[in-house]
């Protein structure tokens, strides 16, 4: 599974993208798994209300299932327009 | 319907003219253009807009299709830039064509509200004293509830 980070999430974690293998069932599980890996992940994911997530390039929420998913992206609230 | 995500500048006059010219049965054309303005505290030198290449085009098309399904529109144009921009440069534009102006105005406002909060762009402002990500505003999120 590819995991992508944008804007300050990318800056805090230090990379734009990584490929990982996970047993996580939901986005929330994946976040918990990442937070345990290293401090920079714990910092980036410390407040989920400040984050948004897309699964396979569609906006969703942290309860979304990861079964069969190829790409998950984490980012702050969008500021387009 | 035309949706363009691009780094290069666009010619607003030419785009608006071309869009307005193609619709003999449309009585109303509305255009909106977003321009880079100085940061609230001043001193901004440039803005860099990051986006999510795989998702941006699809997200904008979904928003544009949504507008077409909600209002009686003849056509929609969305252009949104990314990359580095300076104050005064145009970031994006939307144009709507409808038989009657209420639909054209409302659809343009709808497009703008959704582009603000549901299109994967993130703005960072650079000035003499450093760089800062632009924070999303609560009122931009609240604006979606009226649709």
Automatic annotation (TrEMBL), chain A:
Source superkingdom: Bacteria
CDD domains: Ubl_MoaD
Pfam family name, one: ThiS
Transmembrane segments: none
Record-linked InterPro entries: Beta-grasp_dom_sf, Mopterin_synth/thiamin_S_b, ThiS/MoaD-like
NCBIfam families: moaD
Protein's recorded name: Sulfur carrier protein MoaD
Automatic annotation (TrEMBL), chain B:
GO molecular function, one term: molybdopterin synthase activity
Record GO biological process: Mo-molybdopterin cofactor biosynthetic process
CDD domains, alphabetized: MoaE
EC number: 2.8.1.12
Pathway assigned in UniProt: Cofactor biosynthesis; molybdopterin biosynthesis
Any Pfam family the entry gives: MoaE
UniProt entry tagged with the keyword Transferase: yes
UniProt cross-references to InterPro entries, sorted A to Z: MoaE_sf, Mopterin_biosynth_MoaE
Transferase keyword on record: yes
UniProt KW keywords: Molybdenum cofactor biosynthesis, Transferase
Catalyzed reaction equations: 2 [molybdopterin-synthase sulfur-carrier protein]-C-terminal-Gly-aminoethanethioate + cyclic pyranopterin phosphate + H2O = molybdopterin + 2 [molybdopterin-synthase sulfur-carrier protein]-C-terminal Gly-Gly + 2 H(+)
Subunit structure: Heterotetramer of 2 MoaD subunits and 2 MoaE subunits. Also stable as homodimer. The enzyme changes between these two forms during catalysis.
Functional description taken from the UniProt entry: Converts molybdopterin precursor Z into molybdopterin. This requires the incorporation of two sulfur atoms into precursor Z to generate a dithiolene group. The sulfur is provided by MoaD.
UniProt family annotation: Belongs to the MoaE family.
Name of the protein: Molybdopterin synthase catalytic subunit
């Amino acid at each position: 599974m590819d995991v992508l980070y944008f804007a300050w999430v990318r800056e805090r974690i230090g990379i734009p993208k990584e490929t990982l293998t996970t047993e996580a069932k939901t986005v929330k599980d994946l976040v918990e798994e990442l937070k345990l890996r290293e401090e920079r992940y714990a910092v980036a994911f410390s407040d989920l209300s400040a984050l948004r997530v897309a699964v396979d390039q569609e906006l969703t929420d942290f309860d979304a299932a990861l079964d069969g998913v190829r790409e998950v992206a984490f980012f702050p609230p969008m500021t387009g327009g | 319907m035309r949706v363009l995500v691009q780094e290069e500048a666009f010619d607003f006059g030419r785009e608006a003219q071309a869009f307005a010219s193609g619709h003999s049965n449309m009585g109303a054309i509305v255009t909106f253009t977003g321009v880079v303005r100085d940061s609230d505290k001043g001193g901004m030198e440039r803005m860099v807009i990051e986006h999510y290449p795989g998702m941006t085009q699809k997200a904008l098309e979904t928003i544009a299709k949504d507008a077409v399904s909600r209002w009686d529109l003849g056509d929609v144009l969305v252009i949104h830039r990314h990359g580095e921009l300076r104050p005064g440069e145009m970031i994006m534009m939307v144009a709507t064509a409808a038989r009657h102006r209420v639909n054209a105005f409302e659809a343009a406002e709808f497009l703008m509200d959704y582009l603000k909060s549901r299109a994967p762009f993130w703005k960072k402002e650079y000035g003499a004293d450093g760089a800062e990500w632009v924070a999303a505003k609560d009122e931009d999120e609240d604006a979606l509830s009226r649709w």
